[in-house]
Structure formats: C-alpha cells, structure tokens
User: Fold these one by one.
Assistant:
Number 1:
Amino acid sequence: MEIYQVGGSVRDELLGHPVVDRDYVVVGATVSDMLARGFVQVGRDFPVFLHPETHEEYALARTERKTAPGYRGFAVYADPSVTLEEDLLRRDFTVNAMARTADGRLIDPWGGERDLRDRVLRHVSPAFAEDPVRILRGGRFLARFTDFVLAGETLALMQQMVAAGEIDHLVPERVWQEISRGLLTDAPSRMFAMLRDCGALARIAPEIDRLFGVPQDARHHPEIDVGIHILLVVDQAASAGLPLEPRFAALTHDLGKALTPPERLPDHSGHEERGIVPLRALCERWKVPTACRDLALMNTRWHGEVYAARRMNAEQKVTLLEALDAFRRPQRFEWMLSAGLADTRGRPGHENDSFPQADCLRAALRLAAGVDAGAIAQTCGAGEEVAARIHAARVLAVADESC
C-alpha cells in the first residue's frame, strides 16, 4: 500500500497559498484493507474513506469509463492494480494532477508544475470531455486564479463538449454549486466570460448570455454593453467582500434589459419589471436558495427606485422602505444597498463613486423605525386601518429629513 497527497493541496502548496484540506490517494489497497486499518468509508460512487484520526479523505486509486451522458455516467474501476499515473490521468487539469510522496517528493507525470509556472489551465487528457462539470470548474479556477489563462486546446475541447450537448446533462445542484463558488472568488467575471467563450453560458443561463451586445446610453454607461456592465458590477461586489446573496443580486439585476424592444434602445425604461420573469426562470433552473432568490428579485424590481431616492418626498421614501421590507429585514435591506453601490461602481471611470442614495434611505429608515407601531395599533378602533395609521406616522417622522 502506497499513500500520496494529491490534487488541489499540492497545487496550492506550490503556489504558496494556504492549504485547508488535503486529499490522498491510496495505491495497491482494497476496501477491506482500508476498513481493517480503521478508515470509515464515505464514498457512494467510488471508494473514499475518512482517516480515523485526522478525518482527511483517502480515495483508492481508480480509473473511469464513460457509460452515459452527463457527469454521473461513469463506471468506476478501483483495484490494487491501478497505478498512481493512471489515477492522475483521469483528473481535470494538469495543475490538479500532481502528487507528493510521504517524504515530499513531487510526482508530476502530466506537466502540471510547468503549467503552474506558466499560469496555464490545461486539461490532462481527452477524458476531460466526459464530464461537463469540468467546464464549470474551469471557469471557477480562472475566477480564483486571476493570473491564469485557459489553454487554447482546452477552450476548443470545451466548445466541442457544448456542441455535443454534454453541458445539457448537468443537474441544477451541481451547476449552482460551481456557480456560487465562482461568485465568491475575487474575480467572478472571469468565470462568466469563459463560460460565454465556450458557449456554455447560453445553455445554462441564456438570460445572462442575452445581455451581451445589448446597448445602453453611453452618457450613463461608458461600457455601453449590458453584458460587460454585469461583469464589472459582479467584480465590484467581489472587491467589496460582499456575501453570496448580494453578489448574485448584482449579477442578475439587469436581466430585463435583454427584453427591451429594439426600437426603444438604448432606453431601458421599465427593465426592472421586465427582469422578474427571466430571473424567476433562472432561479428555478439553478435551484437557487431562497435567500439569494428573494434578494435578487427584490433588487431587480426596486433598484431603479433606490437610485431615485434623493428625489423622493417623505411619502415616496416610506412607501419604498415598506416595499423593501426594510423594517423587518434590515440585513437584506443593507445587502440591497450594497448591490446598488456595486452597480454604481460597475462602470469605467466610476470605480470610486459614492452612492448617496444609500445614506438617504438609511436616514429615512432610522427616523421611520422610531415610530411605535405597537402603540398605534393599540389605539386603533374597530375597523380602522392599522397599517395606514402606521404608514402616516412614518411619513410624518421622515418629513423633515432631506438628502
């Protein structure tokens, strides 16, 4: 039995990045051998075990044979005769196909160290084409490792995979898993740009892909193209260190602009409401978690009104705050304002702009929240509109606030 450290931890050590988890491959062993040594089997599709003390993952060396479309269509062969080189050959990218011995010696049969040095993301073998999840992983790696480029032959192979329909067999949970992880990197735009280059974005998110080539008014959007604007906005959300919910909201807030009638371009009046239907379709296809979906829907519908906050009177401000459920959901309200700042800064030459509308609405919320809704409810007689009384009191509280 021989044990090797493999995969991402080897890559990250060579890059000088911190390593959180280490994975190992075991050559020359059987399931019985692992169980006899106290390892706990957890792998459902192939033999993976947890170390009895460290709880790190150990997998038996294996090869795979494609049996059906999609990422689940594999027959796995795990046997003591499988070599380390054969196991590494089935991995996705050369930079992930390196191993270390117990004494620290690097084993690199497929050129991963060279590609790591050259900052190139390259597939290990033609078997890459058998698993469409690897396209999404490639986008995520490019978003994480911002100085890497995708090898031309790997892009060409991805394009062939998309044309062959492999990408259409991905299940929603795996798509969202990779997309959400990519959104949480330093440069999410690189993931979506790569997915568009290989044609995958049009298949998994046509609502986003359709934004590219749609013009906007250059006076407000020097980048002109809506798709480019979206990429700039999501990177601004990332640079601000925002959590997943507002990053997803930033990505999807302008979907309605793809539905603007051509004769009205580049005027996108009403795109907020038009964006609700495609956003719901995207969230359903990806099985987006409720918190992400709800914030994105709210941001899509109301971000235009948020931009107009400084021109609103007290009545309009309170009505907007109530529509945003800001009194009950202050955290979500703050996330929406953060997405608005990213939207403001997601334009060339505006990267350091302020977003005074946020402070305007915060001030209005602070004053309106001082109204004792419970006390008002207790004084209402039978049949009186409690909500209307509370609303009127909030408007009165905000009346002297100016921004």
Number 2:
Amino acid sequence: MIFKDTSFLITGGTGSFGNTMLERLLKTDVSRIVCFSRDESKQFLMQQSIADSRVKYVIGDIRNFDSIKRAMDGIDYLFHAAALKHVPASESFPLEFTRTNILGSYNVMKAASESRVKKAIFLSTDKAVSPINAMGMTKAMMEKIVRSAENTGSTVSCVTRYGNVIGSRGSVIPQFISDMKAGNPIRVTNLSMTRFMMSLQESVDLVMHALSEGKSGDLFVQKSPATKVQNIVESLTSILSIDPPKILEIGVRPGEKLHETLLSAEEMYFASENERFFKVPSIISSTDLTKNRKTETDSEYTSKTTRQLNTNELTILLGKIPEIVDLL
C-alpha cells in the first residue's frame, strides 16, 4: 500500500477506532486526513492532543448527505466507522439506529461513489450475524447494501467485521476496572458468556488488510481468540492485586447472546483464509463461487468455537494493551 500523497477520510473519527487509525496514518507520508464526526467536544480534545497540519477536523452527520458529500472532496480512501452501537439503546430506539447505521451508511456509500473515492472500508460487527437485536439488524442491512448489486460505482467497497474490541468505547473491561478500583460490586450478565478478544491495533490491522487486498463486496474477518466473562473478572482481579469483588449476575439482557458469531456456516462455506484472516467474496459480485467452496460444513466461527484464552493468557494479553494499562 502506497500512502505518499494520498488522502483519507474517517467517519466517526473521534471514536476509539478513529483515534487509533489516525495515529497509524500519521506515521506514514499521507498528505491529508479528514476526521469527520458530529462530536465537537471530542474534536476539540483531539486537536489539542494531535497537532498535525495534515489533519482536518470536520463537524457533520452521516444522516445528512450534503454534509458527508462535502467532506469527501478530493478523498482517495475512506474508513466508515460512524455508527450507533449500544445494544440496549437499539432495543429502545430502533428507528434512530436505522437512520444512522442503514440510511447514514447508504449516504456514505453514495457520496463515495459520486466523489470517485478509490476504496471504502465499512466497519461492521459480529452482532450482524444471525442478529437478535436492532443494532445487529441495522449493521446486517448495512453490509447487505455495501455488498449488493446496487453498489455499482467505481469505488471498491469492502466490509470488515469484528467482535469485542478491548478498551474501546462500550467495552465492558473499562467499566469492570472502574468498579473494582472503587470497591463496587461487579455487574455481569452471565459469567459463562464468551466474547472475542481483539485490540484496537488489531482492528486497524484488519481494516488495513482489507484496504490492501479487498475487491468490491469482499468481507474480511480476523481470526481472534475469545474468553469467558468469568476469566475477564479473574484476570482483572489479579492485575489489580485486589480481593475478589462481589459479583452481581443480572442475567442476559434483551438482544444479547451467550456466544457471538463472526462468520455463519454459509459464509464459512465460501471463505478463503490465511494465517490471520478470513475473506468471504460477495455472492452477487462473484462470477464463480463454486471453485472457492470448501467441503460442506455446519460449523460457524463463534466465540465458543474459536481458541479460548484462560485467565493467565488473558492477563498477559491485557498487560500489552495500552488502553487498558492506562486505566490501571
């Protein structure tokens, strides 16, 4: 991937992924990066900590086509991370999630095509697979739109899908740390629940891989380990050197699964893979999928079937995550 004299736009640029991607891009010789978001307070704070003349901060909302279209002027590559993500909120306000995650993403796709962006990477979630909550449903529809026959412009559009990102906004680990340090009880839904474990740096690696290797309609997933919620609690207890906290097991909330899925059995059937990543071509855009098919399987790629981290392995992993170390 050649970065010299290229320009990038990151929607949702003030979020956890946006911050990490911005730092990664600034280590290259890119000419311009547009950080697009509707949060002026976070933009102000980012400008104080990231003072680089190549970065332009733009306030706007992907729900407004003209807003995102103006920000695309002269952009070569796009990372679409803007989204509403909170599962319980999506159950209460599904229409708002539809407006942002589906219609807003369509605005981004249309604006990219009209602006002749070379390649656009749309970020999705494991909750889009066999979704049972409104957030996952809207992300699944976003994927369908990006990978559909309707997306016929010159822009190469791909999707990346990943699970729990350690230390990101909404991740349970920072909340656990805060409660433990304050001596408060830990509220967990189910100690046997499993979640994929992926760092922010790895989420950027996945998107960069899609940027480098993706063809229009491709879906990319990183091979990630998983762990039980109980192991997360035990690992943080060890790291903080505290007595085991009181645990309040409140039960699985509406829209939650005990185990998350990154690839369905059907997707696994068509997926190719290397040491780190799966790639699933678009069924619509591919001319001959039969040659890509594996032996028929009912296996999904889930947080229960992937490699499981025990408490010691998780403790080592968390000790390498800067976003977690900063909270300790």
Number 3:
Amino acid sequence: MTENGLNSESMRSGPGLPRARVLALADAIDVVRRLDAPADARLRQFFRSRPQMGQQDRGFVAEGAFAYLRRKRSIEALARTDEPRRLALATLVRETGASVRELEPAITAEEREWLAAFKSRMREPLAPAVAADLPDWLWERLGETMGETARAAFARSAAEAAPMDLRVNAMKATREDALAALAADGLDVAATPWSPWGLRVRGRPMLARHAWFADGRIEVQDEGSQLVASLVAPRRGEMVVDFCAGAGGKTLALGALMRSQGRLYAFDTVERRLTQLKPRLARSGLSNVHPQQIAHERDTRIKRLAGKADRVLVDAPCTGTGTLRRNPDLKWRHQPVDVAELAAKQAAILASASTLVKPGGRLVYATCSVLPEENERIVDAFLAAHAEFARGDATAEMKRAGIALDTGTELRLSTAEHGCDAFYAAILERRA
C-alpha cells in the first residue's frame, strides 16, 4: 500500500467523479486521520470490509488517502474543517487538480459554495511548517541539523509521491533483460541512477500477477534500500546476519549477492514480518536464508552466534523520516519523545549485534531516518565504547561495487538529491 503514489489522471474518471468514489475516499480519510495505526494497515482493513470495491476504486481511494496524509496539515489549515467529506473534496481539488465541474455529480450546492471559498484560500500564505506539511517539532529540528535550504528541499521531496522501484534478482536475470522485457510489456521503466540492480517504473502498474514478479526475477525495493545492502558486501560462503530483517527486502538482496551460498540469518522480533518474508523467499530461489524469530536483542539464538558472523546488518527501527513519501502518516504519528526512546533502543540493538561479528568482520548500522540522534550520534557513541571497532569508508565500498556515489565516509542518501528514500549507513569494521 505504501508504494501507492498520487496520479491525478488515475484519480479522475471522465467528465465527472462518481459520488460513490468520493464517499469512499471520505470514509478512508476518516480512518487514516485517526493515526492509531500505520496507514497501510488501516487501509487494508478498510478494503477488506468493502469486498465489493473494484481494483480501480481501491486505487483511487488509496492514492487519495495517501495524498491527504502527505499534505494533511496544509489541507486542514486551508479547509478550516475536520469533516472527512470536505477534506476529501479539498484533497481532490488541491492535489489532483479536479475541478468543481468534475465533482458536480458528487457534491451539494452548499459544498459547491464551500469549494469555491476553499479554492480562493489556496492562494493565502501559510506558516512555514504548515506550508511544508511537517509538525512544528520536526520542522524546527530539521532547521537545526540541515539548514534552511536543505530543509526546504527535504519538505518538498517528502510531500511528493514516491516512484515504484524494483530490484532485479541477480540469481535469475540481468537488469538489461528486465528492462527489455518490462518495456515490451508496455511499462515505462528505466534503470535507477545508482543501484546496478535497480529499475524505476513510472505510474502504478499492477505487478502482482506479472510473470517476472511471480517467479522472483524482480522484487519491489527502493533504490536506497538496495544501496544499503551493497555496503554489507557479503561474499559467497560467509555467515551473514540481517539483525532486524522485517519483511526481508534487504535479506533477499544480501542472499542474491551471496549467490545463495553460505548461511544468511534473518532475525526479527515480530512473527508477522517474518511471515511476510516467506512468499518472497519462495519466489527468490534462495536456499541459504534462515528466518528466525527472536524475543529481544539478548535472545539465546543470538548468543549462540557470538563471534561467528562475517557480516552483520543492523537496519534499526527508527522514526522513518527518510521514507515520508511512502509512509506520510509517520510524520504525524511521531513525537519528540519517540526519538529519544528509539535512540535508546537503537544503541542497545547495535551493541548486541556487534557481539556476533568475528575479528576482521563487518557490521553495518543503517536507518531510514534523517535525524542525527538516530544516526551519527548512535555510531559515535558506539565507537567510543567499543575500541575493537573502527569506522569504514562507505564511498570506498561503493567504488569497489562499481557504484559512482560519493557521500563521504558514511552513506547519506537524500530524497531531494538522490531520488530514493533517505538512508543513513555506517560501516563498522572489527579489528582482526
């Protein structure tokens, strides 16, 4: 669901928008605006409760709901109401360019007058954080860490819909073959600028039943996530641990780099996430992946691997501020206290994961956050407390992988600059 982006053409249908679609969007906005759970999970529940909805209607509603979440603060400020139906109308007018005439079949005379007033207010200036569609605390924090120019660029990129990125499974195909095959099927597809396995698709094609997806030759994965996996640089025959595997996107990328040789553990504390990995793993053709649920970062399964791993990836749980294009609800669900709580958890996870690394091995710490509290500060504190580790060179590793990307000693990906989700990653080498 989080892969959905706003496409104004797909959200408009002929001379007028059907009343049922507008009503459904209003109901969906009413659900996701509560912010009591991830938006994609709430929308899945919403669609399950409406099995009669067709695919196009679901796409319309999902795209509209995510458009609302991306621009929630400015839409509500201009709409001057929290009534879901009017928020839906405001989203359609402001974010898709729908005209009042197109909405005629779905609105009342009173709503027509309200929309006219709303459109006139769209030219009014808004407070900077409101115009940027960010909460005050995050707007201020980004100003402190980025400066005004970078903060403005971040806000603009975070309010855009993310493209659909794919990773070609090097075990089964080449990127050149994938480009040719998908283009022949009518997809608007191009190679990603950095990842040698990445493809970027324009629009929202239905790939779930595509032959290349069904047999594991391609997987949906953001280019930034692919680049983080490349920093781990696992070799065939090694023991590798994905310490916070989640649904396994990076796990599968690591397994392909290992050519399915060696042993690759996928740890996570949430059974549901590992369950989501199983069908992806079956499609991938990998035989060296071993998913294991752990209770916490001190689980006995971890202790048994102490000092044995050649490579360990810690893709730590974080605020997700680098993925706001895909997960716009995160900016409204998080509070400053969450950053502090997550930082404590990140430090504990990194310390535990480090015990797995053998002398001469590599530990990669990564987040999809842009906040230094979750990134540089965690790594600096870890290195200060663990003299057996030294900071590696991310740019040098990228060069070895044939990737012409220079972000300094650490990997720092910016949505505004690099076009992918914003990731931070540091290489930590254990001295032999």
